[in-house]
Amino acid sequence: MHMSLSVILLLRNREPAVTQMVRRAVDVLRSVGAKGRPFELLAVDQTSVDNTLSLLSVLHARLPELRILQDVRQGMAVIEAARAARGDRWLIVDRLVDPELMKWGLHQLENGKRAAIVPGEILAVEAKLGAQVLGNLSGGLVSAQQAVEHELTARGQRPAWSPAPDRGVAERALLFVRQHLGWVGLSQLDRPLGT
């Protein structure tokens, strides 16, 4: 079945937030994302040791649009998602994100941008570009954002970009570290700490 949109949740030990992440994603999908066309919610679990996978199983029974990839090695979630996603457009998140940011990213794609980035929050990308750039990328959301931006820049294009919401000094420092993990060969550690 042809999908118009895939929302991809990169998960590891997200028990406290996974239910709300799924609900927010479904609400966004149903309100603007799919516009009556088929969509999917792809949850990629990176060998969580808490009850994330159990909660996803319960949610799957209620949401036929939810697909679960489980036992994905850390640092491989983006690759596995790029191989499994069926939508024409992808929205990738790895934490509890404001629905308005997700809507903004989808709106940018609908208006002709090939990608939209809110650093450390979301990556909205055309599937063709996503498959090409992310299909061999180790790391998480921030690594994916950087790879897409680099590819578009090499083609003389720019993604839509919006600054991340101000969450204080600690959040900005964490985002800075995540952005630089790839430079020292540690992109597989690119994941948010806490929610």
Annotation keywords:
Glycosyltransferase 2-like domain-containing protein, 195 residues, alpha/beta, Nucleotide-diphossugar_trans
Structure, described:
This protein is of the alpha/beta class. It is 42% helix and 19% strand. The chain has seven helices and seven strands; from the N terminus they run E-H-E-H-E-H-E-H-E-E-H-H-E-H. It has helices at residues 18-33, 52-62, 77-84, 99-110, 127-134, 141-154, 169-180, and strands at 3-11, 39-45, 66-69, 87-93, 115-118, 122-126, 160-161. A seven-stranded mixed β-sheet has the order 3-2-1-4-6-5-7, with helices on both faces. Strand 5 (115-118) and strand 6 (122-126) form a beta hairpin. Helix 1 (18-33) runs parallel beside helix 4 (99-110), helix 3 (77-84) packs across helix 5 (127-134) and helix 5 (127-134) packs across helix 6 (141-154). The protein is globular and about 45 Å long. The termini are far apart. The relative contact order is 0.16. This is Glycosyltransferase 2-like domain-containing protein. InterPro entries: Nucleotide-diphossugar_trans. It comes from Nannocystis pusilla.
